[in-house]
Write a structure and sequence with these properties.
- The chain is an all-alpha fold and 262 residues long.
- The chain has twelve helices and two strands, in the order ββαααααααααααα.
- Strands 1-2 form a two-stranded antiparallel sheet.
- α3 packs across α4, α4 packs parallel to α6 and α8 crosses α9.
């Protein structure tokens, strides 16, 4: 509208045409700029949190830990080999000295040691224990060769079933061999360890367990009968146990001991 001296003299119109030229480009720049800023910050944060240097350090730490673990295993194995090897070597040396002291010549000692080795091969028991028992059995009158191998194998089988050491069971067998007969105290030691000696002898002799008990009281069960009954009842127990996981671990330990002894 137009006015003159306060009086309206006419009406005019102005046409407004919107112009969006450059608007899209400007808006795009603003949006992309903000996006780049946010993306840059996010990218930097991610990079800081997960960069190649950090990953490399992590893998390095794992590698060092693995190397340390392997080193610890190697050290433990070396320790077992050293300790077991010394014990094995001393046991064998002591057994050989005992055999020599009992009047055996070098050939006899070698034969008895071979018997000892054959009796525990494939079991969880070691030559050191077998050699010690062999010396004790020899002192009790057990002859080298087939008798020694059989008796030592039976001792190993009995030790496996009873859960006692080969040396402990060997002492019981040596007691029976030295006396020439099975007596009540030897019978009690075995039965208290879960070995059914009366049942084995009952089956071996074809009599009742009460009859066997009476025979033991009268001293009528000789060493050969006792050993045969035990072998028939337990034969192969130590060999079977040698194939178990625990037996395999014992075999590994025995192998390390052999290495240490050498």
């Amino acid at each position: 509208m137009a006015y003159k001296n306060g009086t309206e003299v006419g009406t005019g119109y102005v046409t407004i045409v919107p112009n969006a030229e450059g608007f899209g480009q400007s808006l795009s720049k603003q949006i992309l700029g903000k996006t780049r800023d946010v993306g840059g910050r996010a990218s930097k944060s991610f990079s800081d949190a997960f960069n190649l240097s950090t990953v490399g350090q992590a893998f390095g730490t794992v590698a060092k830990a693995g190397t340390a673990a392997l080193g610890a295993v190697a050290a433990a194995a070396a320790g077992i080999a050293a300790k077991g090897g010394i014990q094995r070597a001393l046991a064998i040396e002591g057994a050989q000295a005992k055999l020599v002291g009992l009047g055996h010549d070098s050939a006899d000692v070698s034969a008895i040691m071979s018997d000892a080795l054959a009796s525990v091969k494939g079991t969880a028991f070691g030559l050191g224990d077998a050699a010690t028992v062999a010396a004790t059995m020899s002192a009790s009158g057990v002859q080298s060769g087939e008798q020694m191998r059989t008796v030592l194998s039976t001792v190993a089988d009995t030790a496996q079933i009873s859960g006692r050491s080969m040396s402990e069971v060997g002492a019981i067998f040596s007691s029976v061999a030295a006396r020439g007969k099975l007596q009540g105290d030897d019978l009690l030691q075995l039965t208290s360890a879960g070995v059914p000696v009366l049942q084995f002898l009952s089956k071996q002799l074809g009599v009742t367990t009460q009859d066997v008990s009476d025979m033991v009281s009268r001293g009528q069960i000789d060493f050969e009968t006792f050993a045969d009954a035990m072998q028939a009842g337990l034969g192969g127990a130590a060999q079977a146990a040698g194939g178990t996981f625990t037996g395999a671990l014992s075999n590994v330990r025995a192998a390390l001991s052999r290495l240490g002894a050498a």
